[in-house]
Write a structure and sequence with these properties.
The protein is mostly helical and 125 residues long. It has helices at residues 2-25, 35-54, 62-76, 79-91, 95-124, and strands at 29-30, 33-34. Helix 1 (2-25) packs parallel to helix 3 and helix 4 (79-91) runs antiparallel to helix 5 (95-124).
Length: 125
């Protein structure tokens, strides 16, 4: 029951954080990419790496892992929105923007996980 409650609370907070970021950034675009989705996905990538590096993950309870990694960060980031926005750009004939968005999000996202992990490990000492 605690694991489900952790997922529910973490997911709710993550979704609300994403919603707030999307409201704040509105329909802003950067280099033809939706800034809101891009920002939450990049920030989420950095945060998951940072937390994974800073925390002693094997020692965390299942409830804590569910809250942080599946609920909070899973609810905050959004691969399905990225996929839809890429498809919409392809459908609009904006192949360059679609490819840039897809490539930059994936490459930079993975890079930010590594950077976050490195920073988190440094914080842990």
């Amino acid at each position: 029951m605690l694991n489900l409650l952790s997922l529910l609370i973490g997911g709710t907070l993550g979704i609300l954080g994403r919603y707030g970021a999307l409201l704040w950034l509105g329909r802003s675009e950067w280099m033809g990419m939706p800034l809101g989705t891009f920002t939450v996905n990049m920030l989420g990538s950095l945060l998951i790496g940072l937390l994974w590096g800073a925390l002693d993950v094997p020692q965390l309870s299942d409830a804590a892992k569910n809250f942080l990694f599946i609920g909070l960060l899973g609810g905050f980031t959004t691969f399905s929105s990225l996929a839809l926005e890429v498809m919409q750009r392809f459908q609009a004939g904006d192949v360059k923007s679609a490819m840039l968005y897809m490539l930059l999000t994936n490459v930079l996202g993975v890079l930010l996980v590594f950077v976050g992990f490195w920073l988190g490990a440094k914080l842990q000492g």
